[in-house]
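Hi everyone, sorry if this is the wrong subforum. Our group has a chain we'd like a structural model of before ordering constructs, and none of us has done structure prediction before. Sequence below.
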Amino acid sequence: MSSSSNNRDKRGPAKRGPAKPTAPPGEAALSGQPEKGPSATRDVPAAGPIPLVPAPLHMPPLLPPPRPNKAARTVLRRLVQGETPPTAPMNIVERLAGSPYANPTIQVGLADESARKTIDFALRLAETMFRYGAGALEVETSIIAVTAAFGLRNIEVDITNQSVIINYAHRDGVPITLLRVVRSWTSNYAGLVQVHELVTDIVSGGVARDDAYRRLDTIIKRPKPFPRWMVSLAEAVFAAAVVGVIGGGLLGMLVSLVTILLAGQIARVLGKWRVPDFFVTAITSFIITLVAVVCFMFHVPLSPSMVVAGGILLMLPSGRLVSAVQDAINGFPVTAAGRFLSAFLTFGAIVSGIAVALVSASMLGGDRIKVAEPIVGSLPLYIVLPLVAVATVTLCIAEQTSVRLLVPTMAVALAGYLAYYGGIELGLGARFAPALAAIVVGILARIIALRLGAPQLVVAVPSIIFLLVGLSIFRAMFVLTLTPADSVTGAVGIFNALVVILAVAAGVVLGDNMARPLTRPRGQQVRRRNRRR
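Answer:
Right subforum, don't worry. Here is the predicted structure as tokens:
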């Protein structure tokens, strides 16, 4: 016997504990114990390490494990997960990507101790931009750029149609929330250009907050570039030029010029009396329609619809409609809804004033005239292009654009009209041709405006007025309101006009985004020149 068996005999019999319940057949094998009972025909070894079986001689030797490819794993992780977690909130400074104020230079200082002054300045800046006609996207990017440059990064901005709210909540400090309401508007594109230059200088790190306060006060108190009498004359010349574009002839242009001068003076007096804009627009359109009725009664060889169209061109909220669609596209639905409502109220005021004038003329024994007939211009291109140039320059004067932007804006408008004319000649139709022209205007407006230190808006808006998107909505609303028998025609006309407006606004936004790789913010150019020095 072996030594192990002898040691076991000397210790004596093993002590047995209490009897354990017998597991059913088959379960003992699963638990690693030998199966007992009559069904057990062989001993099952106790659980232990699995013995290694030597490989056969004919098998090849095992290859070393492959090394992990880090580049492949990185690419796979980016494809599956993305560069940032999908639930992480976007930093508000990332809203500046693609804007003229990207990558601001942050001024180092005690930002939290002077946060209230910085927010006050940002609110006053935003109010000034809204008053001068800026869009919601330009206002938001300017606020974010200024606050980030002055050291405030944990802010939230909420913009509606006429109010701006800024909230600053530091991690260990007391939150600050301030509200500013915009209650008045004015046309001052030159002031908007100066505000853009101020924000650009702040972003580049060249202006402190106290200096920025003084510069903003100077911009607000600075007079507009053109006097009031020149603005009134420019508005009349603009209407006359557009009437010539749509085929009104010299007589139609002259009547439109006189009508706008008369209506403008009456509107200015009503504005001094603090009459609401709705009634000012209705009274002005009433006077313009009376002029058309008088011309018709005296058998003046001029279409009444031409007289009315030439008179209400400046009152049509075409730019407001396009701005509303742009705000909706850029993610500001509340602001877009407010501007849409304001624009359609203006259309309602125009239609109501014309309707009252027509009813009053018919009650006095006059004939009912048609003022909503479609007008199709038939002038050759070499005559239309100078008229478009004159209309664009005079509209820029009416909007108080800087003098140095008059010629560039005129060039952009001519390029856009040539694109529109080419689209019509190629058979793109009345819907796609305006979209093509708007894309061209959006691209050129961003490139030229940023090169001249101005926002894209001040060049793009006057350059798309020649598309006359507001005139088609006026005709459709007039037919829908005053001719119940043609209500279906009016509804279809409104739908078609809204489609064209959507195409124009989307084209301008698309052109602006397409031109981003071709432009570089002026602040980055200044910083690059400073590094070279």
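For your construct planning: The longest helix spans residues 333-363. Confidence is low (pLDDT under 50) at residues 1-42, 525-533.
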